[in-house]
Amino acid sequence: MNATSFDGAPDATGPDAPATSTDPGRIVLLTTSHRVAPGLLSWPAWQALRGADQVLCADGAHPQLPYLREAGITVDEASPTAQELVDACAGGRTLVVVATGEGEPRLTDGLARLAGSGRIQMPDLELLPASYDLPGARLLDLVQVMDRIRAECPWSSQQTHKGLAKYGIEEAYELVEAIEEGDRDELREELGDVLLQVVFHARIAEEDEDAPFSIDDVAGGIVAKLIHRHPHVFGDETATTPEEVKEHWLRTKAVEKRRTSVTEGIPLGQPGLALAAKLASRVRTAGLDVELPRGEGVGYELLRTAARAEAEGVDPEAALRAAARAYRDAIRAAEGSSGADAED
């Protein structure tokens, strides 16, 4: 790098662009993502950095700076105004500004005003993403926020797996309600609340003295499970129907868990209709011929109803909830009608 200071005027000529009195130069705003490991920059970014007459950064603690300097890039800590930056480009110089986390709004707004005024000849302006987020990158933000909350929040720092369990159940029910209501905004929010429960429990698990694990262990476990249980996607097996996929899944799961009964792994604490349907589904999938227990009363009637619904491909829990919602709407309509009659 030819320049080692910033005083609003050119110090030298760039290696690839001979200075001329009319060349307005070039300003490159180089942005990076804090979710990508520092130093992992795109090749165009490295080319811009190495070819610049001067590299500036307003934040002396920017995480990229040690890696840039290790690569031989001189970075000057400075926060020039838009006019100063334009003046410094005169004569064909190229200046690279390593953007801070806020994206340099003061500088970009100032450059926009200068360009819009039409009073001066502007240098070429380029926005160059040196690194960018891949899908799922915001999950890293959630992990970082959870770390801080766990450390600094008086309530969150005292929570345990048992203490949080009820919230997981509540959030799951709220998610189901959002799905049934068809509210997309509510669905997105409730998915976030469920995701928080996962990250929260994983953060608590890191502190266990005997068997700690992290969110990375949780994610690694489910990734390995999905790959192993989808041999028709990641392996050599073939599955052309949803039923064949389910067979693969259950067969692989039985081998993994070394289960001796199709009833193993079915949580008995789930709602009754869902439990009955799950048992019926396991029996049907396994090809077993098990007669429903004979008995009198509402319980046995519901069991038979749930088994029949499962055989017909109907979720009895969802069907009952839909019917209950219709009943709720009828109640509200009756209440509204009664209120109107009372006013009359």
From TrEMBL:
Query: Which molecular function terms from Gene Ontology are attached?
Result: nucleoside triphosphate diphosphatase activity
InterPro entries given in the database record: MazG-like_dom, NTP-PPase_MazG-like_N, NTP_PyrPHydrolase_MazG
Q: Where is the NTP pyrophosphohydrolase MazG-like domain?
A: 159-234
Q: One of this protein's Pfam families, by short name?
A: MazG
Q: Which residues lie within the region annotated Disordered?
A: 1-24
BP GO terms, sorted: dATP catabolic process; dGTP catabolic process; dTTP catabolic process; dUTP catabolic process; response to stress; TTP catabolic process; UTP catabolic process
Q: Where is the composition biased (Low complexity)?
A: 7-24
Protein name (Swiss-Prot/TrEMBL): Nucleoside triphosphate pyrophosphohydrolase
Origin species: Streptomyces albiflavescens
